[in-house]
Amino acid sequence: MNGPEYIAPANLGDALRIKHERGAQARVIAGGTDLILRMRDKVLAPDLLIDLKNVSLDTISDSDNGIRLGACVTLSQILSEPVITGSYPALAGACREFAGPPIRNRGTLGGNLVNASPAADLVPPLLAYDANLVLASSSAVRELPLTGFFTGPGQTVMAPDEILTEVRLPSMPAPTASVFIKLGQRRSMAISIVNLAIRLTLDDASRVSAARIVLGAVAPTPIRAGASEALLTGQELSGELIALAAKKASRETSAITDVRASKEYREKMTRVLVRRALESIRDELQRSESSG
Amino acid sequence: MAEIDIRMTVNGSVQQLKAGAGRTLLSVLREEAGLTGTKDGCSSGDCGACVVILDGQPVNSCMVLAPQAEGSQITTVEGLAVDDELQPLQRAFAETWAFQCGFCTQGMLMSCHALLMSNLNPTREEILTAISGNLCRCTAYQGVVKAVEQAAAEMRSQDQNRHE
Ligand SMILES: Cc1cc2nc3c(=O)[nH]c(=O)nc-3n(C[C@H](O)[C@H](O)[C@H](O)COP(=O)(O)OP(=O)(O)OC[C@H]3O[C@@H](n4cnc5c(N)ncnc54)[C@H](O)[C@@H]3O)c2cc1C
Ligand code: FES
Ligand code: FES
ipTM value of the model? Predict the structure, then answer.
C-alpha cells in the first residue's frame, strides 16, 4: 500500500501554494477525525496530506460587528469561549452534544463544515446565526454566506485549490433567543437522527422580526424551513402559532430511512422538536422581557 | 510508502520514530514504541480504549496520525505511576472495582486523569462528561465515578497538606 505524503506548512501562504500545485489529490487535514476514517475505509486516498496545525487559524476574536472563528478552532475551544456560550448558545449547545471530550479536543469547526455531512451538528446553529465563510486560494480570497455552501452530501461549492480560513458570525440584536436540539440514539457519541437550531429575534412590539429554523439530517444538506420561518415573521408567538410552525417545518423536510431512523420517525420528531425549541425560546424571551 | 521521522516526548522521554504518514499515533505507540498499555478497541474514535494525553488534552490516539503528533508531549497509561508507585487514581480504580475485564481501563484512567489535572473537585455530572467518550463493555461505570471521587478527595487532602 502506498500511503500519502505529508507536509505541515508553516503558514497559510505556503499551504495555499501547495494546494494550488497539487489540486484535488492533496487533502487538507485539520483534526483528522473525519479524514482518517475515510482514508482507512478507502473512500478517500489522497496522495498528499497538508496538515494545518502550524497555520495560525485557531483563534476566536471579536470584530466590530460580530465574531470571527478560525477554521481550525476545535470544538473544545468553542465550548470554553465565553462570548460563544453567552451570545451564541445554540453553537455552544451543538459543541456540548458533540461526541465526547477526546474527539472535541481534535475535531475542528472547518472540518465539520467542509466534510459536509447532512448531519453535521455545527451547521444548523451557524446557519441560524447567518454565518459567512471566508475561502482563500493562492490567487484570491472570497467571503460567502454559509447558505448555499453545501450542494449535496459531502459536496460544497469550494474549488479544489481553496482552503476555508474563517467563519464570521454577525452580532445578534436584542432581544434574540436561540437553541440547539439534537436527537441521537444516546446522549454522547451519537450521530444525529435529527438536529436543529432555531433563532428568533423580536422587534419593539414583541413581534418576530427574524426567524431562522434550520433542520439537519432530514435532507441531503441541512435546510432552512423557509415556509415555517415566514409564518412566524411579523407575528407574536402564541401556542397556536408554534404548533402550526412546527407542523409546517416537518413538511419541509425530505428525510430518508437509514440505519439510524426511518423517514417517518424523522418527520414526526422534527415536528416535536421544532415545537419544543420554539416553546423554550418563547419562555426565554418572556423571562428576559419581564426581568429587563 | 515514504517513511517520515517523527520526534515526540512520550512519558517524559524523547522518542525518535519512523513511520508512514498514514500510521496512527495508536499503532506507532504500540508497535514502534512498544507501549502496549494503550488499547485498540474500535480504531474509529468510538470506544475510548486508546485515549492518551496529548499536550495536556485527552485524545483518541486512533484518530491522530503519527505525524500530526510530531513535536508533542504525550502521556500514556505507562506514564501515570511515579517510580513504579501507583497514583491515587490508579489505586482508587483497584479499590472501588472500577473494572471487570479491564480492557477499557487504560482509556478510562487517561480521561479521568485529564479531568483531575484541571479539576480536583469534579461533580458527578463532570465525571460522567469526562468519560462520555469511553465505553465499558462490562458496565463498570459506577465504579469509575466512585474511583474518581475517592481519588479527588485524596488528592485534595494531599494538596492541603502540601500547602500547610
Ligand atoms: C467518534 C466520532 C464522533 C463524532 N461525533 C460527531 C458529532 O457528534 N457531530 C458531528 O457533527 N460530527 C461528529 N463527528 C465527525 C467529525 O468529528 C467532525 O465532523 C469534525 O468537526 C471534523 O473536523 P476535523 O478537523 O477532524 O476534520 P478533518 O478530518 O481534518 O477534515 C474533514 C474534511 O474537511 C477537510 N478540511 C478540514 N479543514 C479544512 C479547511 N480549513 N479547509 C478546507 N478543507 C478542510 C478535509 O480535507 C477533510 O476532507 C464524529 C467523528 C467521530 C470519529
Ligand atoms: S480504539 Fe480509538 S476510540 Fe476505540
Ligand atoms: S471493564 Fe471490561 S470493558 Fe470496562
Answer: 0.95
